[in-house]
Specification:
Shape: globular
Number of domains: 1
Radius of gyration: 18 Å
Number of strands: 8
Helix content: 25-40%
CATH topology: TIM Barrel
Bound molecules: zinc ion
Number of helices: 9
Strand content: 15-25%
Structural class: alpha/beta
Largest sheet: 6 strands, parallel
Length: about 270
């Protein structure tokens, strides 16, 4: 879940926390977007600035203190970027290694202008090539060792980056991605925001979840909330589906160490 510091979310962290507690959660993790050099990325105003990072951490820690007596643990994570150009990653790496985080997500926001331009520059044109390329970049991300969980793994379907995304057409590269996650001992995120943001389907696609289950991929779960009242959105619906697909556990991270919980019953 996010905070208004990223420029495209609403609601104070304490509002997210209270809503979560009201819904019955006993633990949540904030993962607002990591500050990036967005001039280099071709877009501004959609990430917190580097000089807001301390404020972000203070806000989350204050929220954690406030919510402790209420029975809600609040963890401080960050949603980091996956990007093909390593030169852009240096400032981000300083943030990842220079602070103590509970949890680091790895996201390739394929709809960002800089990635679209990267694709154009490298003559990656049709939908098939773009989606394959996207998953290959995710694989590089997995092996970079930066992230605890790969978030919204098929977000390539949203925001019109490709007209069509049919997982079967990319089965080899997606299976390579899933196998890399297992090999590296990290997790994949099930992100329920896809159900309302254009894909109208959970991230990743249920077929990808089938492959992931067979390969032994461990899951974290997120609602990617950009407003307090979307915390836990669609969890009721997705958890029984995940059980049916053979997932019996979920995972979360504290101090970047993985913890296992039973797949919750519908809330
Ligand atoms: Zn966001
Ligand atoms: Zn994201």
């Amino acid at each position: 879940m996010h905070t208004p510091l990223c420029g495209h979310a609403i609601g104070a962290p304490i509002e997210y926390a209270r809503f979560a507690r009201g819904k019955g959660f006993d633990m949540i993790t904030f993962t607002c977007h990591i500050p990036m050099d967005w001039d280099a990325f071709g877009q501004t105003g959609i990430r917190m600035r580097l000089d807001q990072l301390d404020q972000y951490r203070d806000l989350i820690h204050e929220t954690a203190e406030q919510m402790k007596p209420e029975g809600l643990e609040v963890l401080c994570g960050i949603e980091a970027e996956v990007y093909p150009d390593e030169a852009h990653m240096e400032p981000m790496d300083k943030i990842l290694t220079g602070y103590q985080w509970d949890f680091v997500l790895g996201s390739l926001h394929a709809h960002c202008r800089s990635y679209i331009e990267w694709l154009k520059k490298h003559k990656v044109k049709d939908d098939k090539m773009i989606a394959d390329c996207y998953f290959r970049h995710l694989i590089d991300g997995v092996y970079s060792g930066r992230y605890d969980s790969m978030s919204h793994p098929d977000v390539i379907r949203t925001y019109g980056v490709v007209d069509h995304f049919i997982p079967e057409e990319h089965e080899d590269v997606i299976r390579d991605f899933l196998a890399a996650i297992v090999e590296q001992g990290i997790c994949m995120e099930v992100n329920t925001s896809g159900l309302n943001k254009g894909a109208y389907e959970v991230h990743p696609d249920p077929l990808i979840l089938d492959w992931a289950s067979k390969l032994g991929v461990k899951l974290t779960m997120g609602s990617d909330s950009h407003r307090p009242d979307s915390i836990g959105q669609h969890f009721d619906w997705i958890q029984p589906l995940l059980r049916k697909k053979g997932f019996t556990e979920l995972y979360y991270f504290r101090d970047r160490k993985r913890h296992e919980i039973d797949m919750p019953d519908a809330m």
